[in-house]
Amino acid sequence: MNGVEGFMYPNEIALQWSVLIVLYPYITGLVAGAFILASLVRIFRVEAVRPTYRLALLTALSFLLVAPLPLQFHLGHPERSFEMYFTPHSTSAMAMFGYVYLWYLMAVLVFELWLDYRAEIVQRAQSTKGLLGLLYKAMTLGNYNISHEALELDEKIGWIVTLIGIPSAFMLHGYVGFIFGSIKANPWWSSPLMPIVFIFSAMVSGIAAVMLIYMATTKMRGLKIDVACVDAIAMYLFYTFIIDFALESLDLIHRIYEADESFRSLDFMVHTKLYIPHIVIQILLGTLTPLVLLAITQLVKLPERLRKRLYVIAGSLIMIGVFAMRWNVVIGGQLFSKSFLGYTTYKMHLISKEGLLVSAGLMLLPLAILYVLVRILPPWHEGENQVLAEGAK
Amino acid sequence: MSSFKNTGHLFRFAGLFVLAFLIFLGVRGFVVPKSFGQYGHYRGNAIVDDAARPMFYAGHQACETCHADIAATKASGAHAHVNCEACHGPQAIHALADDPTAHIPVKPDSATLCIRCHAKTLAKPKNFPQVDGDHSQGMACITCHTNPHSPAMDTAAKGGAK
Q1: Domain map (residue ranges) of chain B
Q2: How much is the ipTM here?
Q3: Inter-chain CB proximity A111 and B13 less than 8 Å
Q4: Of the segments A166-180, A246-260, B121-135, which one has the largest average pLDDT value?
Q5: In chain A, N or C terminus with fewer CB closer than 10 Å?
Q6: Which whole-number Å values give the CA distances from A378 to A12, A28, A116, B132, in the listed order?
Q7: Is B125 on the interface with A (CB under 8 A)?
């Protein structure tokens, strides 16, 4: 049979979960990571990364709005997906995720953004005309109280929301790992380490994404990149990445040491079908190379220009590496037979409901949403532009 | 009350949540079928709906009522545990009709039917009779296995599947 080597059970030949299911944990991971970066400012008082605080929250919101879309495209009857909200079953991990998602979207992200932007929303509601003015008026919820006391209260509530947001972000993405980790029939997925590995790789990819978006948007605005800020982000990225790398290695070593009945089959797969995406792209290109690059920036005093370039290269490689990790988990987990006697092939379509074009569109959509959000709610403060522009001269 | 003076906007945001929750409850009440949860985590009326659907399979007992001779042959052969309708297809229209002869079932084509179960694959137990594509050389299975209800044959004489 075309694309099949050895023996596959009939229901294993065609993959059930396509590239869209790769996008889903990737996008939710970016949300969780971006939020964790924002929490560095609010909870851990890391002032150096403050320029990215609002941008990180808006990035998280943009990606969170798109996170369920790959699943909707994957479903044959997407309208039925709402049934998991209306008639949730306590044994359904997916239904519980629906509530975690809603909680994170509304009670954490939207609320925190609203509290943080409220003063500006009120000012804009009073000064902007037309449709945009109406939008700002709606966003004030009819309350224009931006007294010092009210804003101080917002700050306190915002702090609490962020504090609740950190475990919520962990829940949101840990759950994605949980869904895979709890599939005991699949030895490639079934591991209690899966949620933890997913969370840390999510933090790595989210932090890298915000760093890249911050550098790109600052460049596009013709301003000078705050090097102290990207240095601090890169430092946290490096530390988080080391933990992530250690956890993934632990998972790998544990599998090799345990060497259960699936090991020979999985090992064969990693050395053949998954060699390029797993060994080359995920481990060599997406993990070891950026780790070395980030280590160099931490250990050697490099010129500012070179540091920034290394951050861009390392950040981009991390984004590719984490995507490859999601790919290897989702697609890799479906390439081998439960009989451990055969392997199938995944062929991604170009133009189909679950093809490459739809995936690329879904990956670009959060950036388009972010563009609109940034236009409505600029993450940079008034006056900051001038100061930074002068610095750029 | 002065401590609540600056909390108005927070109550409004909380109000949004309450409003969203009420809308959710309203929509839920509208879209979730009334019989949902009657017996378990499903629509109770689904049982009534399913019971009202026409029957397609009669069951082997219905076949054996009239075809006792074939049932006896089958019971003595390798196909003893294969249900009649597994090969002949759903026959409720024939078995339950007032005049079964008005709905005579079409005889299955052994050239395509038998291979559904007996095609050789690694997944089947070794002692299960399996043949590859060249075995029949284009002939219908019943050319040699003349009685499909008890398909054993003298393999040494005919040179069939080992």
Answers
A1: 2-52, 56-106, 107-162
A2: 0.83
A3: yes
A4: A246-260
A5: C
A6: 49, 23, 12, 69
A7: no
